[in-house]
């Protein structure tokens, strides 16, 4: 190759491994359909072969080479892998007996693998088990992919202030000596939490299949359900309690679970990001309960149940619903919109701007106010008790600017293709924050994204990928300088 040109071999090699993993995952919905004598098992069989063929070809063509990963290659790999995986993941939807269109198949696959949870599908209660399990598997794989990306790739790329967590996952925190060992350890914890969640769902009255599917999408904070009405389709509050607890757990940094398992239980309570997240959740639940009791005439226990479930579902980006919060009045709508953009903790499966960026912004603002009062003093912004490293402040502020810009452009684009104001605004917010349901009659908690025009769905797909990959990772690929030798 020409010197300084990008070497695509390591990128294709890794994408090939990911495609083979996706192909193996297709075996499980195939077996689910086969057990129910559903003819769609052949669809998953041939899709698995097709995906494995391309993945294997990429591996064999680029195997046996000694190569390292540069920053430019890492950016391209991160962006390309999610798009390629979503494209192959869409095949079972498109080829199944449901006859889902190409646009809807891509929308459902991208929504699944980015753990957004927006759906174009109806009739979930009577849908074949293979497709339902495939939707859950996509979100589960997307969730663990997000964690690994947040702990290893994003700190390396210094995206949006994520370099703050470079040492927390390696040198100074000693969570694991190597990135591969860290990923394996986190993956095991992710698997165990999914199993525990499944057991509790089953104990609460769910069937084994529903318990498995919902456990996958709960830990992944994805929100795909096996019912059109989501949790409103179940008959007991016990299931909602299980979901509320594990959604909250999915919004916490998974590296802290690893530290807790290794004996440092205090890490889950001493981390400033966890404290901020917990305080925001408690405050939001409290004020929502007060509003529902005072202005919506709900009794306290019902208000507690509704507020806790929906606040945690929205702030973690899970997107489960147990009723139409759009009917609760203007305050509830504003609260949901606000919670959409906040998100959970970095290093979790959740979405949004992330708590640590608000911490950085608060610390920078505090330092600036002190500087104004004492012009000759020196005031450094801090995070988690340590001075912010050089470049983090600029990176975080740049992320806020880009988030606001991309949100505005998405909202304008959705309005341009015919969506009303509330649908366009909430659609832009829910896609770039990877939340799931929006607001309004069409895409609200009681609706879905099926009625939207195809152009709006593709715009939302762009928003979902942008939000999941932290904006910079996608936008940098569009700059001409990235492709120059």
Report on this structure:
The protein has 485 residues and is mainly α. The chain is 64% helix and 1% strand. The chain contains 21 helices and two strands. A two-stranded antiparallel sheet has the order 1-2. About 2% of the residues have low confidence.
State the main characteristics:
single chain, mainly alpha, 485 residues, two-stranded antiparallel ribbon, globular
Short description:
The chain is 64% helix and 1% strand.
H/E series, N to C?
HHHHHHHHHHHHHHHHEEHHHHH
| Number of helical stretches of at least 4 residues | 21
Structural class: mainly alpha
Distance between the termini: 11 Å
Number of strands: 2
Shape: globular
pLDDT averaged over residues = 91
What share of residues is helical? 55-70%
Largest sheet, in brief, is:
2 strands, antiparallel
Spatial strand arrangement across the major sheet = 1-2
What are the segments in which pLDDT stays under 50 over at least 5 consecutive residues? 167-177
> Whole-number radius of gyration?
22 Å
Beta fraction: under 5%
């Amino acid at each position: 190759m020409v010197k300084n040109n990008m070497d695509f071999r390591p990128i294709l090699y890794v994408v090939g491994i990911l495609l083979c993993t996706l192909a193996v995952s297709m075996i499980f919905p195939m077996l689910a359909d086969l057990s129910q004598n559903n003819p769609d098992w052949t669809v998953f069989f041939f899709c698995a072969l097709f995906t494995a063929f391309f993945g294997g070809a990429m591996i064999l063509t680029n195997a046996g080479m000694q190569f390292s990963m540069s920053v430019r290659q890492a950016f391209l790999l991160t962006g390309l892998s999610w798009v390629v995986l979503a494209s192959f993941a869409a095949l079972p939807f498109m080829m199944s007996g449901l006859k889902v269109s190409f646009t809807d198949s891509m929308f459902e696959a991208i929504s699944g693998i980015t753990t957004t949870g927006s759906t174009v599908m109806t009739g979930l209660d009577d849908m074949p088990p293979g497709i339902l399990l495939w939707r859950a598997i996509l979100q589960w794989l997307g969730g663990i992919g997000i964690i690994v990306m947040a702990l290893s790739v994003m700190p390396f790329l210094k995206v949006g202030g994520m370099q703050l967590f470079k040492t927390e996952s390696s040198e100074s925190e000693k969570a694991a000596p190597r990135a591969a060992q860290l990923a394996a350890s986190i993956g095991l914890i992710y698997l165990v939490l999914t199993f525990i969640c499944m057991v509790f769902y089953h104990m609460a009255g769910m069937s084994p299949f529903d318990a498995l599917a919902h456990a996958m999408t709960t830990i992944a904070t994805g929100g795909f359900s096996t019912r059109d009405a989501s949790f409103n389709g179940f008959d007991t509050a016990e299931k909602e309690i299980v979901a509320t607890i594990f959604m909250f757990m999915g919004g916490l940094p998974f590296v802290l679970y690893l530290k807790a398992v290794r004996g440092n239980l205090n890490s889950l309570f001493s981390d400033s990001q966890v404290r901020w997240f917990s305080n925001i959740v408690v405050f939001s639940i409290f004020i929502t309960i007060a509003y529902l009791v005072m202005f919506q005439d709900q009794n306290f226990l019902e208000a507690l149940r509704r507020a806790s479930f929906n606040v945690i579902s929205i702030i973690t980006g899970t997107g489960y619903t147990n009723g139409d919060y759009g009917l609760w009045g203007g305050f509830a709508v504003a609260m949901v919109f606000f919670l959409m953009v906040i998100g959970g903790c970095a290093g979790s499966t959740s979405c949004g701007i992330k708590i640590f960026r608000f911490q950085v912004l608060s610390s920078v603002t505090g330092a600036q106010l002190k500087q104004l009062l004492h012009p000759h003093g020196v005031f450094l912004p801090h995070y988690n008790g340590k001075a912010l490293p050089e470049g983090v402040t600029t990176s975080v502020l740049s992320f806020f600017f880009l988030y606001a810009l991309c949100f505005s452009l998405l909202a304008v684009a959705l309005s341009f293709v015919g969506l009303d104001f509330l649908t366009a605004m909430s659609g832009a917010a829910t896609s770039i924050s990877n939340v799931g349901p929006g607001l309004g009659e069409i895409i609200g908690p009681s609706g879905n994204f099926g009625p939207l025009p195809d152009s709006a769905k593709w715009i939302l797909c762009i928003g979902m990928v942008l939000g999941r990959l932290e904006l910079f990772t996608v936008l940098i690929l569009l700059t001409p300088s990235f492709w120059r030798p």
